[in-house]
Amino acid sequence: MVTSNPYMVNMGPQHPSTHGVLRLRLVLDGEQVLRVEPVLGYLHSSKEKLQEEHTYLQTVPITDRMDYLAAMTNNLGVSLAIEKLAGIQSPPRAECLRVIMSELQRLASHCFAQGVFLQDLGAWGSPLMYFLREREQILDMFEMVCGARLTYNYIRPGGVSQDIPPQFTPAVNSFLDTFPAKLDEYEELLWKNEILRARTVGVGVVSRELAVSAAFSGPMLRASGVQWDLRKQDPYCGYQNYEFDIPVGQTGDCFDRFMVRFYEMRESLKIVRQALDVLPPGEWKAAVPIVIRPPAGEAFQMIESPRGMLGYYLVSDGGANPWRFHVRAPSFINLGALNEMLVGTTMADVVAIVGSIDIVMGEVDR
Amino acid sequence: MINPWIIATFGSALPGWLLATITGAIGTVAVLVFTLVSALAAIWIERKLISRMQVRYGPNRVGPKGLLQPFADALKVIGKEAITPFGVDKVVYSAAPFIIFLAPLLTFGLVPFAPGAAVLNTDISLLLVVALGALGVVPIFMAGWASNNKYSLMGAMRSIAQTVSYEIPLVLSLVGLVVVTGSLKLEDLVVYQIQHGWFIFLQPLAAVIFFIAGSAELNRTPTDIMEGESELAAGYHIEYSGFKFSLFYATEYSHVFAVSALISVLFLGGWGTGPLLDLVPAVVWMVLKTYLLFCVFVWTRATLPRLRMDQLMAFAWKFLLPLSLINIMVVALEELLGLPGIVVAVVNMVLAVVLIVQWTRLLGSNGQSPERRVYIQRPATAQ
């Protein structure tokens, strides 16, 4: 009689496909996962506490370092929360620019997610390089508007830091003209690929119930068939004025999550196009004092970041620094059902599933 | 090339054992040089080619067009500290990289690069080549087991399962060639192809099976589960560094070259040029075909994702194995009937296409293109 002993494998924190420093303690029987235990905190840098030591304006660049693949939406979230707390109204041009930037950021982030996911599936380098090429164009645009390519600190309480330069609009327009064709090409290449389908269809299925009860958000939730997008459900920055659809999957497997991101990229392109058309002239920044002293109270603002519902909870005691600064990080909460998703699968599926969640460890550990 | 000349000139003057030693030494040195040069060239070719496929430039700093990059790589790797981790089985751990380097090297010793130009020109060279291919798995398991690392052990387990599975269709695909030629000598196979046409046309099914099964033995995508970079970090050689790692690294490339050389000998007519001119020396054609096939392997690596372990096994047992058995039956029948070559080629080509398509249909996707899932659902009330 052949017996097998389960053994424990540390996947991470130094592992090529744990997206940074996620550590999974896997108990394996051969290749099969019997138990999984995520160990977090390797990138913990007390960002929430750090922000309580800074003035409100100074908190914005720290949020850049949380979700470093979607810094724009992080800036947006914290700016909206501070505006809510202090009762600041940003001008319409700023609102529109914010929409453009956060949708471009979504495109950049999804490009990266798709490439890395395929890299995790073993497609050695090629898809990642192609998706990075597209992402590069967006980073160039961000560089035009704020000089930075990764940590922007562009969207600030009261508006945006500076107006867009004259070369920005043509750059976005040429991107909008070329990118959809490329997106179609990539999708056509990938979704029918026999190996890709074999690795993703039916793998890591998250049922609708599980997705809701685990408080998933973003593409993770929508792939499981829940039509929930804060841009529709609780619009901010005037998202109710734009026409777009919410792509929704049916089965909630890795393939659906992969495809939902493709479709979301199309919708983002639509929004950017509409926002560029209606971009109003005028001020891009409200008059905001350097040291904001909001009245005592609390504010909670959630936005739809590329990874899901990104929430900022601020408590003010009337001083110059936030008394409490809390972040609802979608990456962290999307990791919540790892046990349900991974147990019973194989080592290769673990990589595929973790890749399809699209986590950013800077946000998970904060 | 030199050896026949030596034999012709000094054959009568020198004693047999001395002659054998001299020719053997020359051949060995030639094969060694070819293997090492090829491994170095392969690193450059692959990095450059893959870079181009991945919209980047690739190495272009060291030397013109980055040509000296392999040397820089080799120097860097050899200059690294050789770490022997705690708790390893020292003898096995140290021996594995040297043994693994043997398999492709010995294969090259059996491959005829030109008429009579194989170091060891035995009557059973085909059998030896197959045996050497299977030998490659032993050092992989040695490395994986001795490293005292769970990742490398998993890589080793995967490699055993994979190689055992793919060895069978690999060997069976060659039976058809032996049935037709009636010889186990690689040189005879090439001579037969020059006379009757290349086996890639005569037995396309066998060529496809051999290519897939051969690439499965090379641990390259889509079948690189034993290395599985994104899953097992590096698989069986995760604990190696310095010179020992460089041996694994070089072996990977020379192994690809060995299989490429084998495919060109077995299916692409070896040194034969087919309808092309015979002005160019035979060995040039052979090397050219080998390098071209290497580029095909690079291409697949740049294109395809990796299969999962169970899917890979299923593919070997459910797809390659039955098809190779059918191939043997058909070839044997044709040989029995004594059909002319052109008929055999046409029949086998049609058969290969039909079989591959139908078998795929039988196995999974029903032959239809997969259903496109709907992601955008607008409520019926909206326009």
Characterise this structure.
- The mean pLDDT of chain A is 87.
- Chain A is globular, with a radius of gyration of 21 Å.
- By secondary structure, chain A is of the alpha+beta class.
- Chain A has one domain (44-365): Cytochrome-c3 Hydrogenase, chain B (Orthogonal Bundle), CATH 1.10.645.10.
- Chain A is built from 15 helices and eight strands.
- Chain A has helices at 47-51, 56-64, 71-86, 92-120, 126-146, 168-191, 194-200, 208-213, 219-223, 230-233, 254-278, 330-334, 338-342, 347-357, 361-365; strands spanning 7-11, 23-29, 32-39, 155-156, 159-160, 297-305, 308-316, 324-328.
- Helix content of chain A is 48%, strand content 13%.
- Chain B has 383 residues and is mostly helical.
- The longest helix of chain B is centred in the N-terminal third of the chain and has 38 residues, at 16-53.
- The radius of gyration of chain B is 23 Å and the shape is globular.
- The mean pLDDT of chain B is 79.
- The A-B interface holds A 7, 9, 15-17, 30-31, 118-126, 129-130, 133, 191-199, 227, 245, 247-251, 255-256, 259-260, 263, 346-351 and B 50, 53-56, 150-151, 154, 157, 221-222, 224-225, 228-233, 301-311, 365, 369-370, 372-378.
Return Rg of chain A in Å.
21 Å
Low-pLDDT runs of chain B: none
Largest sheet of chain B: none
Indicate the percent of residues in helices of chain A: 40-55%
Query: The CATH topology of chain A is what?
Result: Cytochrome-c3 Hydrogenase, chain B
Radius of gyration of chain B: 23 Å
**Structure annotation, total helices of chain A:** 15
Characteristics of this structure?
heterodimer; A: 366 residues; alpha+beta; Cytochrome-c3 Hydrogenase, chain B; three-stranded antiparallel sheet; B: 383 residues; mainly alpha; 0% strand; globular
Strand and helix map with partners:
The complex is a heterodimer of chains A (366) and B (383).
Chain A: E1 7-11, E2 23-29, E3 32-39, H1 47-51, H2 56-64, H3 71-86, H4 92-120, H5 126-146, E4 155-156, E5 159-160, H6 168-191, H7 194-200, H8 208-213, H9 219-223, H10 230-233, H11 254-278, E6 297-305, E7 308-316, E8 324-328, H12 330-334, H13 338-342, H14 347-357, H15 361-365
Antiparallel strand pairs in A: 1-2, 2-3, 4-5, 6-7, 7-8
Helix pairs in contact in A: 2-3, 3-4, 4-5, 4-11, 4-14, 5-6, 6-11, 11-14
Chain B: H1 2-10, H2 16-53, H3 69-79, H4 90-110, H5 125-135, H6 137-146, H7 150-181, H8 186-196, H9 199-202, H10 204-216, H11 229-232, H12 242-266, H13 282-303, H14 309-337, H15 341-363
